Amino acid sequence: MCAIVGLSTDKDNASLTLYNALTVLQHRGQDAAGMATIKDKRILNIHKDNGLVRDVFNEESMLHLSGNLGVGHTRYPTAGSYNFEEAQPFYVNSPYGIVLVHNGNIVNAKKLRDEILKQDLRHLKTSSDSEIILNIFANALEKNKNSKLTKEQIFKAVDEVHNRVQGAYSVIIMILGYGLVVFRDPNGIRPLIYGSKKGKYMFASESVALDCLGYEVERDIKPGEAIFVDSKRKLHFHDYKKKDTYTPCIFEYVYLARPDSVIDKINVYKSRLEMGKKLADKIKKVLSKKELDEIDVVIPIPDTSKTSALPLSVRLNKEMREGFIKNRYIGRTFIMPGQKIRKKSVKQKLNTINMEFENKTVLLIDDSIVRGNTSRQIIQMARDAGAKKVYFASASPPIRYPNVYGIDMPYVNELIAFDRTIDEIKIEIGADKLIYQSLQDLIESVKKFNNEIDDFDTSCFSGEYITSGISKEYLANLKDTR
């Protein structure tokens, strides 16, 4: 889960728009940030570093990033290391000069790395799978023997990426002297959308970046589709001929995306409201009348679960109160690099309003339970604040399997639900009651807003992977490849 942005405009201030878009999308990655711009079709400037957007860029670097064509990225590492070299954008000088930003994760990286080195005879500097996509695209363009590059040759290179790469990828590429190339994997796993404003075009991971900068949303990039914006800002479209199932990642709606975004025509906020309604119905089925009557208050765990908790409290006829106050200057613990940092951050991130817990049976609502460390600490905080009993409900099903498509939950032994029953998980996190959303209810909560979608990637809940290349051997090796 990274943020990517691309921009084709008529003035040399693309970097300012990219900066503002990246700050809006900072929730998608906090490890590193970067931008690249092209001025006068040939002058390339790149600036990237570890850290938040506001820390990576200053007045000097922004002045250096002059240009009317640009790409930006915030990094959330799931493959590779945390080194500066892994920060994006990535650049290769041959052919033409190509710059790439990528969101997602490819699953046949080991095989492709060997092919690139031995068959394509290209050098890889990093362990990032994004650099693999860049070199496959560059190698395909290198086969063109003409001095001038055509849109047909560009789209043929994109098709070669689709033919060789397995996994999830939304990609934005700049080709010096030619323009911007944007494409999405044939399953549409990771999101990508574009908008326009007075002949200018912006591409981004989420619609909220377009909204906040005054761009009118055009539509989502279709699965397998490529769009080429040439140097005159004319758009050219191309569809990959090999059709696949339209299966975006459902975890975008559970947690990853901002609630004010619309992804694949689905309003994230509306889908979370629906999750809350479904979860309320599930709670009514699981808890006895006595246990339901015991609940004094519904308390969401900031911030993602607030949307689901509201309709849930209405359906249960229980008062919803704010029991946890979030420190706005602490980032999202789920996407912080390293387990030790995550553990330390929970107490710094949240503090209790004790009067909302004292001598009460509280129902805590969270969007999901991944490793369980945060849930365990939050439940203990509720007890320390005076709660008699703590019931805990998750708006998504148990996460029992690795995610291999760009979310940092790949190693099964880190997942609290792996090889555990609901009762065992309840004991592990210290709750008096534990209720999970059913997978079918989660799917219905999201799909009801767009029937064009075939299905969703629910692999972290179901263990069913929608692309090829996910063998038992691959899953067993995930710990070593993180």
Give the topology:
Elements: E1 3-8, H1 14-24, E2 32-39, E3 43-50, H2 53-56, H3 59-64, E4 69-75, E5 90-92, E6 98-106, H4 109-118, H5 129-142, H6 151-164, E7 167-175, E8 179-184, E9 193-197, E10 200-204, H7 207-212, E11 216-220, E12 225-230, E13 235-239, H8 251-256, E14 262-263, E15 266-267, H9 268-286, H10 289-294, E16 297-300, H11 306-316, E17 324-326, H12 339-349, E18 350-352, E19 361-366, H13 373-384, E20 389-394, H14 422-429, E21 433-436, H15 439-447, H16 459-462, H17 472-476, H18 478-481
Parallel strand pairs: 16-19, 19-20, 20-21
Antiparallel strand pairs: 1-4, 1-10, 2-3, 2-4, 5-6, 6-7, 7-8, 8-12, 9-10, 9-11, 12-13, 14-15, 17-18
Helix pairs in contact: 4-5, 5-6, 9-11, 9-15, 12-13
Walk me through what this model shows.
It is a single chain. The chain is α+β, with helices and mostly antiparallel strands. It has 2 domains: 3-244, Aminohydrolase, N-terminal nucleophile (Ntn) domain (Glutamine Phosphoribosylpyrophosphate, subunit 1, domain 1, 4-Layer Sandwich), CATH 3.60.20.10; 267-481, Rossmann fold (3-Layer(aba) Sandwich), CATH 3.40.50.2020. 33% of the residues lie in helices and 23% in strands. The chain contains 18 helices and 21 strands. The chain has helices at 14-24, 53-56, 59-64, 109-118, 129-142, 151-164, 207-212, 251-256, 268-286, 289-294, 306-316, 339-349, 373-384, 422-429, 439-447, 459-462, 472-476, 478-481, and strands spanning 3-8, 32-39, 43-50, 69-75, 90-92, 98-106, 167-175, 179-184, 193-197, 200-204, 216-220, 225-230, 235-239, 262-263, 266-267, 297-300, 324-326, 350-352, 361-366, 389-394, 433-436. It has a 7-stranded antiparallel sheet. A hairpin with a 5-residue loop joins strand 5 and strand 6 (98-106). Helix 4 (109-118) packs across helix 5, helix 5 packs across helix 6 and helix 12 (339-349) packs parallel to helix 13.
